[in-house]
Structure formats: C-alpha cells, structure tokens
Write a structure and sequence with these properties.
heterodimer; A: mainly beta; 6-stranded mixed sheet; 5-stranded antiparallel sheet; globular; B: 7-stranded mixed sheet; 11 strands
C-alpha cells in the first residue's frame, strides 16, 4: 500500500463548478496535511494546509481532514481554467513529508 | 528574501560526469529538504537537514549522491558518475521546525537535470 494515495485523473470539471480532490494516507501518526498545486514544468506551490479534523477555508479553497478515516480532501469552488494543474497531497509525520503522485485537474472553459 | 532559490535551473551533462546543485533556503528556515521528481510522480524524498546536521538520507539514494549544508544556510547536492536514470527535476524545499503552525514547506524552482 502506498503511503499517500491520490487518483491520478484527469479530473475534468466545467468552469464555475466545484472540483473535489481526494487523498488517503496510511500512517495514523501523521500530523499535518498539505495541498500543493503544480503547473507543468514548474515546482509545487503550497495552497492549503490543515492540522485538525474538520474544514479549513481560504478563498475558493476548502481543505477537509478526517483523521479517523485517514482522508484529506480539497474543494475548489468556482473553478477557473487557470486552476488546471496537478494537485499534490502531502502528509507530514515528525519531520518528513510524503507526497502522493498528484491528481491532474482540467477546468474546461 | 523572496523564497527558496536553486542554481542552476537546468543542467545537461554526459553520462559519467559529476554535477553539483545549490539551494538557498528562506533565510530563517532551519530545515532543508532535497527531493527528486520524475514525470507523473510526486516529489520523492532524498535527504533532510536540520541546521547543518543531515538527519536522514533516503535508502533509495545510492552512494553516488551526497549532500551538505556546511553552515546551516545553503546546501549542495552532488551526483557523481551520473547515469541516464538520474535525469529528473531536483527540488529543494525549506521550512521552520514545527512551532505551532509554522511548519509549512516551500519549494524552490527546481533544477532540471538531463543526462545524455
């Protein structure tokens, strides 16, 4: 079992819709959870982080964490074509960050 | 200080040559990470420093790879006797040791290595 799992996609959504990205992790000792956006040929850019169970909202982005189910999600409201990218989920234990393979999101104009 | 910087941004080398990459972290960050990323994969952990101490090195990393952070500031990653399988994006990231919520990790632009 991979330590951090994501559906590779592509996930296609129409412009203005809600995009829902999911991630599961295997280490119950994981402490912090991060979502990065990566455009093709570029390095990952941090967009959200969450430490506690529940929801955390930042603009059009909402991160959701359920530690009992070992599940993290990212919702993007009012999706824009500029949101088209690969979204990486990362999980941190004591100090080490483990990344999923990413989900490719396509927002269709 | 505008973020993590890496140099060079691109490196093309011939198989068997040695290459060295540099990373300058965000100035107040005491943790520095090196990752390797290939197409369609997430960043793969290579090694980690807290200040000048290298605290972990991936078991996937061969002895041809070495990293240093001599004064707890910038870091170098050297690959000796490069192989075609070393072709990848090498990413550096930095963070503060966790203090409350201050453990977000920020990436540099990466060094893309092509081994011919």
């Amino acid at each position: 079992q991979k330590e951090v799992e994501q559906n590779s996609g592509p996930l296609s959504v129409p412009e203005g819709a809600i995009a829902s990205l999911n991630c599961t992790y295997s280490d119950r000792g994981s402490q912090s959870f991060f979502w990065y956006r990566q455009y093709s040929g570029k390095s990952p850019e941090l967009i959200m982080f969450i430490y506690s169970n529940g929801d955390k909202e930042d603009g059009r982005f909402t991160a959701q964490l359920n530690k009992a189910s070992q599940y993290v999600s990212l919702l993007i409201r009012d999706s824009q074509p500029s949101d088209s990218a690969t979204y990486l989920c990362a999980v941190r234990g004591t100090y080490k960050y483990i990344f999923g393979t990413g989900t490719r999101l396509k927002v269709l104009a | 200080d505008t973020g993590v910087s890496q140099d060079p941004r691109h490196k093309i080398t011939k198989r068997g040559q040695n290459v060295t990459f540099r990373c300058d972290p965000i100035s107040e960050h005491n943790r520095l990470y090196w990752y390797r990323q290939t197409l369609g994969q997430g960043p793969e952990f290579l090694t980690y420093f807290q200040n000048e101490a290298q605290l972990e090195k991936s078991r996937l990393l061969s002895d041809r790879f070495s990293a240093e952070r001599p004064k707890g500031s910038f870091s170098t990653l050297e690959i000796q006797r490069t192989e075609q399988g070393d072709s990848a994006m090498y990413l550096c990231a930095s963070s503060l040791a966790p203090s409350g919520s201050n453990n977000e990790q920020f990436f540099g632009p990466g060094t893309r290595l092509t081994v011919l």
